[in-house]
Amino acid sequence: MATYVLVPGAWLGGWAFKDVADLLRAEGHEVHAVTLTGLDGEGDASAINLDTHIADVVDVIGENRYVILVGHSYAGMVVTGVADRVGERLAKLVYLDSAPFENGESLLDFSGPIQAVDNRFAFPSYEVLRQDANIDRDTWELLSAKAVAHPYGTYAQPLRLTGQEPTYERIVIACDDFRGLVATGMPRFQQFVAPAWKRVDIDTGHWPMYTATKQLADVLAAL
């Protein structure tokens, strides 16, 4: 049986993976669904940055080996940093509708400016996400009921990598929006057609843990 560490994206806690985690545990797997620092709504957001979230996941992995590490959306940045630090403990590194970033990049380089209040930025409105991520209202309501304002420093701090070569398998689970980005020809996303990557497509929106729960669990179990 495998050990999974599931890291949700911006605004979300480990609760977002609850149903997926339950399905994997029912198959006998060990599953850790991570709530990153500040994503419980607590703490001084001015003291939380990308390094904080990388350290959170490194601590969860601990002495475990052959870990399947999954990062959704924003957490693609986090798990890239984790793999750089403890890659020898990973069996597979999985980007869930996400992608790795380069040394020296920050999320703000990709997203553009974000309005923050008290060093946090709020979960977007349904109108914004409907346009940007094609979310349906039911899913938005489920997420927004528990989502918390995200610590700004995690987007502002650049990723710092040592450049060690990966010894683990690299996988991308591509949902609708991600496949659209690949289709644009943007250089960042063209790597996922290369032999170094395994790619699995799921025909659903950006939050497959809600909109394709069983399918996502099956994909993860089959990796």
Q: What can you tell me about this protein's structure?
A:
The protein is 37% helix and 17% strand. It has one domain (3-221): Rossmann fold (3-Layer(aba) Sandwich), CATH 3.40.50. The protein is of the alpha/beta class. 39% of the residues are buried. The protein is globular, with a radius of gyration of 16 Å.
List keywords for this structure.
globular; two-stranded antiparallel ribbon
CATH class: Alpha Beta
- Structure classification: alpha/beta
CATH topology: Rossmann fold
Look at the structure and give the mean pLDDT.
94
**Shape, per Cα inertia axes:** globular
Q: Which value, in Å, is the CA radius of gyration? A: 16 Å
Overall domain count: 1
Number of helices: 11
Short description:
Pfam families: Abhydrolase_6. This protein has 223 residues and is of the alpha/beta class. The chain contains eleven helices and eight strands.
Question: What is the topological layout?
Answer:
Blueprint (H helix, E strand, L loop, with lengths): L2 E5 L10 H9 L3 E4 L16 H12 L5 E6 L2 H12 L3 E7 L10 H5 L8 E2 L4 H7 L4 H8 L5 E2 L1 H4 L12 E6 L1 H8 L3 H4 L6 E5 L6 H4 L1 H9 L2
Parallel strand pairs: 1-2, 1-3, 3-4, 4-7, 7-8
Antiparallel strand pairs: 5-6
